[in-house]
Amino acid sequence: MSTITGGVAESEVAPAKRPLARSSLWRLAARKLLKNKLALAGLFVVVFMFALCFIGPLFSPYTDNKIHMALMNKAPNLKHWLGTDALGRDVLTRVMQAGRISLTVGLASMVLSVFLGSLLGAIAGYYRGIADQVIMRIADLLMTIPSLPLLFILGALLSEWKVPTDYRMYIVMLMLSFVSWPGLARMVRGEVLSLREREFMQAATVLGLRDRRKLFKHLLPNLVPLLIVIASLNVGGAILSESVLSFFGLGVMPPTPTWGNMIDSANNLIDFQQRPWLWIPPGFSIFATVIAINIFGDGLRDVLDPKPKK
Amino acid sequence: MAEALLEVNRLKKYFPIKAGLLNRTVGQVKAVDDVSIAIRPGETFGLVGESGSGKSTAGRTAIRLTEKTGGEVKFKGVDLHTLGAEELRKLRPKMQLIFQDPYSSLNPRVRIGDAIGEALLDHGLAPKDEVRDRVLDVLASCGLSAYHIDRFPHEFSGGQRQRIGIARALVLNPELIIADEPVSALDVSIQAQIINLFRKLQETRGLTYLFISHDLSVVEHLCSHIGVMYLGSLVETGSRDALFREPLHPYTKALLSAVPIPIPKLKRERIVLSGDIPNPANPPSGCKFHTRCPFAVARCKEEVPAFRNVGGDRFVACHLV
Predict the structure, then answer these.
(1) Where are the domains of chain B?
(2) Which residues in chain A touch residue B65, judged by CB atoms under 8 angstroms apart?
(3) Where exactly are the structural domains of chain A?
(4) What is the three-state SS of A83-105?
(5) What pLDDT, in 10s, does the model give residues B108-120?
(6) Which residue in B75, B122, B135, B144 has the most chain A C-beta atoms within 10 A of its own C-beta, making it the best mutation to test that interface?
(7) CATH architecture of B6-316
(8) Known Pfam families for this protein (chain B) (predicted)?
(9) Is the separation of the CB atoms in A53 and A96 below 8 Å?
(10) Is 0.95 topped by the overall pTM?
């Protein structure tokens, strides 16, 4: 412990805070992530898609639903990089606008289901007993129903009840969270069950710490890596489910574009064979985004899961 | 005789064995069965026994880290097992536990300074701006350096972590410390350091220890009183000197004869017990030790020996004494 200050006497009062000695677990994880090239590539693609969808339309001279009959079904050209669709709308602009919806739906339903799932799972795992029984039996019940048919039925009901198109996006978010929280709750519950038996939690009891501190300073921080990984993988799943629903005409309705309903509108033999610019861009967007998110989530798991060791 | 700081009376802790589709209780493991201990202020009571003899469970039940099945525990005259959750929490600082495994007893995501200081905040034992000083004080008295305060547990060795565990207990100024095999996870040279630290702290702070260990030489070095456990029950208690000079129970004799002595040429009678500790879910009838006891007679098989006073503060559970 030599002092670099040389001639200056070390102060007796203030034990000098050394910024170098303060290592952070997050910084450690970030450093490990930088070494994981595949995960970085995934992160890059995700960031790129977000930038494209949320910033891209600002630079586009077209809007997503301006109909232009003279420009029907034009192949990609210099003015319309990805061509135009059956109503003369610019495909690139629509793909970007659709991405806004798809990514927002994916993120929002992830936030909601992670919130629901981790809250209910943590309550079940930490308090056990009746709460555990009630929550987990409901979760089990929801998990016994295959989610896709359930979503189809809900989607069909929405159409039957003539829910305004503007609201459908939000209802789709709710639906997706509703079917995905049980799996999440189960994972979180398992983790909490194992954490609460760890010795440092017992130590917290012996020290007489308040419940609030035990939960938020000891239990939750150890849950965060799991939550981050679950959340990132969940976004991919939600985007995919939304696309599936929209493809079947049960999710977000045209004219509001989403990647799923864009593919659906090209769902006929002529478009499929002769106008690939109608379905390749949204299809590729789904593919690239979901795979990139999953790769990134996997990388995060590798970085965050093992306990930090030197 | 001064009043006991910790008084354990006929404490029982049974764990149910559940089996089958309906998860019915099909039996019980009597981990702690009728254990009575009294520890007076300033004493060090050593609880020894084989693995699985229930020493740790006894210690943990004594401070109500696990709920008891029967009996009572009085700490400074207060029955711990009848207190409400908040009353118990407020009493916690006075009795601390030091864990066996220094690796799992520290939260990997909490800095050392926070881990030691947080209980002070929760109990209102120090204002926020004094916590750091208190932590620095206690780090110093446990042989750790001030710059350790901002580090994470994974940056320490096993011995240092155990010191952190001790510091965490000590900062609360406890009266009783239950040390649950605090050195068994450490290598021998570090064991000595930690044991001497325990000793030094007792001298400077007048602590009372319940020291749980399976290492008789450690217990002899540190403890003033000793209790020997076998299969959930105490078989013998007494002061260290009396017990080491003249062990009365056959099990104690066997244990003491197994302590290595650093004199190679010295020959002595070694009592080697046959077999393993019996299954605690299905303990032997009568005296639990009769299956392995070299002196067992017919009576031992049928009649449970009383844990009786045999003069002074010595208690033994054996028909033959």
Answers:
(1) 6-316
(2) 202, 205-206
(3) 89-304
(4) CECCCCCEHHHHHHHHHHHHHHH
(5) 888 899 999 999 9
(6) B122
(7) 3-Layer(aba) Sandwich (3.40)
(8) ABC_tran, oligo_HPY
(9) yes
(10) no
